[in-house]
């Protein structure tokens, strides 16, 4: 018998002062049996950091990456169906990143493992021609603190001001210090 996804509900309050974006999102996340709490919370963080200010450029939606290997983690399509923004979580190989960059106007990767430096040093030289790519690193200890906030039903507040990012759940909070490894951090 196949294991089924675990459903998580997240009420997300975003106060992105840097982008003048204030929004609330009620999200349902399906966590694949092979996915960790840490990875799911990074998906949620990536959603919050890239939520569009309005729906004029299309909605940002969770993909079926854990069920369909060719699907990205998060996808934003414009109203005509063209890929505006694709977001990957983890450490995809250079072929996958190159393929995504050829299909979408913008690609972001969020890596959160302690092996990020090793992964990135192995593929960075192969991706220098990709101008629509931005690669971010979330420190492993901070992503683990974020994973500790994972519950089946969550209410999270995310505040971003002057590059400082705080995520809280009413009881605990963690400061996330994203590092841009490649690309334009303001894109």
From TrEMBL:
UniProt superkingdom: Bacteria
InterPro entries reported for this sequence: Restrct_endonuc-II-like, YaeQ, YaeQ_sf
SUPFAM superfamilies assigned to the protein according to its UniProt record, in alphabetical order: Restriction endonuclease-like
Protein name from the UniProt record: Uncharacterized protein YaeQ
Organism: Prosthecobacter fusiformis
Source organism phylogeny: Bacteria, Pseudomonadati, Verrucomicrobiota, Verrucomicrobiia, Verrucomicrobiales
């Amino acid at each position: 018998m196949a294991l089924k996804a675990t459903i998580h509900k997240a009420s997300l309050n975003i106060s992105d002062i840097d982008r003048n974006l204030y929004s609330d999102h009620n999200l349902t996340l399906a966590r694949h049996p092979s996915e960790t709490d840490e990875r799911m919370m990074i998906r949620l963080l990536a959603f919050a950091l890239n939520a569009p200010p309005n729906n004029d450029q299309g909605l940002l939606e969770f993909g079926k990456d854990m069920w369909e290997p060719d699907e990205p983690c998060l996808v934003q399509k414009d109203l005509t169906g063209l890929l505006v923004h694709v977001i990957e979580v983890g450490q995809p190989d250079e072929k996958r990143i190159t393929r995504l960059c050829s299909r979408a106007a913008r690609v972001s990767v969020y890596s959160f493992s302690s092996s990020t430096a090793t992964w990135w040093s192995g593929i960075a030289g192969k991706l220098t021609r990709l101008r629509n790519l931005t690669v971010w690193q979330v420190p492993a200890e901070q992503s683990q603190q974020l994973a500790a906030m994972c519950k089946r039903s969550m209410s999270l507040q995310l505040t971003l001001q002057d590059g400082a990012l705080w995520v809280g759940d009413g009881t605990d909070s963690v400061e996330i210090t994203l590092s841009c490894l490649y690309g334009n951090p303001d894109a």
